[in-house]
Each structure stands twice: as C-alpha cells, then as structure tokens.
C-alpha cells in the first residue's frame, strides 16, 4: 500500500512533479516521458504517483492550465483585443504569440505538437478537459467567427483562417532555411503584413 503523505510532503511532491513534468514534457514530449522519470526526483514509487495525479496526462493538463491563463492574457487580452482595428489586432496577436513561443518552452511544445493535447483529451473526463475552454486557441476561434460575422474577415472556413495564422507561427521552426539570419525579422514582419492583409477586408 502506498505511504500516506503529510500536507507539507504533498505540497512539496506536487511542486516537484510539476517541475519535473514541465522539464520532461518540453524536452521529450508526453509519449516519451515515463512514470519512472517523473517520480525519480521525488524518490518515490510509481504507485505513489497516483496519489497526486490520475495519470501523466492529468499532470500534463495541469501544466497546460497553469500556462493557459497567463498566455491568454498576453496574446489575446493584451494583443488581439488591444485595438478595434482587425488587421492590426491580428498583427499584434501574431507578434505576441511568436514572442511567447520564443520564451515559453511548454507553449511552444503545445503549438508544434497538437497531437499531445488530443492525447490528453482522450484520456481525461470531459469536465476536466472543459477547464481548457478559456484558452488562447478558443479565444482566437471566437474572435475569427465574430470578425466574419461583422464582415471584417474573409468568409473562409474559420478553422482554415486559424490554420493560416498557425502556419505563420510555425515559420520560426524553420528559420535556418530562410537564408541570411539578419533578414529573418524583416521576413517575419512582411509575412505577417501579407497574411493579415489577406485575411481582412478593406473598409469602404
């Protein structure tokens, strides 16, 4: 039978599991991370892990929930919703998200490996996954639908519009293929301008 932990021990071990999970998930992903690796720094048996999280997917979701609120504030509230001009709003969103991907390893992992979020969703109950409803991806999709309804954005399938924006976010992964590194900032700026101009309707 797994040992009982005091409240202080539980808090310490929970923090350690979250810290270890963050490092391992960002470095090698959900699938390649084993329970043995997750519990090793805490010096406890695998069976004891389940006193803290139902599965490694539950640990992964907890990390995503912790990140989602702060990321949403930066890329949605402070960027996408910071101006009534739709084209400029999309520009700000893309630039803020590119900054986020450059500085936030876990969010970079989530953006480049959507299959991991799908794996988490399959393993967990609907109520727990619903906690992710207020996240940047959901907020962006809602913004796109509102913009189309108001005639501010092209009338393509909203999922396609989101996909076009996500394509811009994948460019940094292949920056070394774009030639002179000194020109990379100009390439990104021009790409953002072209994409946002193509997605938005000119008033008048």
Record keyword descriptors for this entry:
11 helices; 2 domains; Tet_transcr_reg_TetR-rel_C_sf; Arc Repressor Mutant, subunit A; Tetracycline Repressor, domain 2; transcription; 204 residues; single chain; DNA binding; Transcriptional regulator; 71% helix
Overview of this structure, please?
- With 204 residues, the protein is mostly helical.
- The protein has two domains: 1-53, Arc Repressor Mutant, subunit A, CATH 1.10.10.60; 67-199, Tetracycline Repressor, domain 2 (Orthogonal Bundle).
- Helix 4 crosses helix 7 and helix 5 packs across helix 11.
- It is elongated, with a radius of gyration of 20 Å.
- It starts with 6 loop residues before the first helix and ends in a 5-residue tail after the last helix.
- The protein has helices spanning 7-32, 35-39, 46-49, 56-80, 86-103, 105-112, 114-123, 126-130, 136-149, 158-170, 184-199.
- InterPro entries: Homeodomain-like_sf (IPR009057), HTH_TetR (IPR001647), Tet_transcr_reg_TetR-rel_C_sf (IPR036271).
- Pfam families: TetR_N.
Summarize the entry for a quick read.
InterPro entries: Homeodomain-like_sf, HTH_TetR, Tet_transcr_reg_TetR-rel_C_sf. With 204 residues, the protein is mostly helical.
Largest sheet: none
Low-confidence stretches at least 5 residues in length (pLDDT < 50)?
none
What is the helix content?
over 70%
Secondary structure category: mainly alpha
Report the span from N to C terminus.
72 Å
Strand content: under 5%
Total domain units: 2
Pfam families: TetR_N
Protein name: Transcriptional regulator
Keywords: DNA-binding, Transcription, Transcription regulation
Organism: Prauserella muralis
């Amino acid at each position: 039978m797994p040992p009982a932990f005091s409240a202080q021990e539980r808090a310490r071990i929970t923090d350690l599991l979250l810290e270890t999970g963050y490092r391992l998930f960002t470095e090698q992903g959900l699938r390649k991370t084993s329970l043995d690796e997750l519990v090793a720094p805490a010096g406890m048996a695998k069976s004891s892990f389940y006193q803290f999280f139902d599965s490694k997917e539950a640990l992964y979701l907890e990390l995503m929930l912790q990140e989602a609120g702060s990321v949403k504030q930066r890329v949605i509230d402070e960027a996408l919703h910071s101006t009534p001009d739709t084209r400029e709003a999309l520009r700000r969103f893309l630039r803020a998200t590119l900054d986020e991907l450059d500085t936030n390893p876990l969010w970079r992992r989530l953006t480049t490996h959507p299959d991991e979020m799908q794996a988490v969703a399959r393993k967990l109950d609907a109520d727990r996954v619903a906690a992710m409803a207020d996240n940047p991806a959901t907020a962006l999709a809602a913004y796109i639908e509102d913009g189309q309804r108001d005639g501010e954005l092209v009338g393509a399938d909203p999922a396609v519009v989101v996909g076009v924006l996500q394509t811009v976010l994948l460019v940094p992964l292949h920056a070394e293929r774009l030639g002179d590194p000194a020109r990379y900032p100009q390439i990104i700026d021009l790409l953002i301008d072209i994409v946002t101009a193509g997605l938005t309707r000119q008033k008048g």
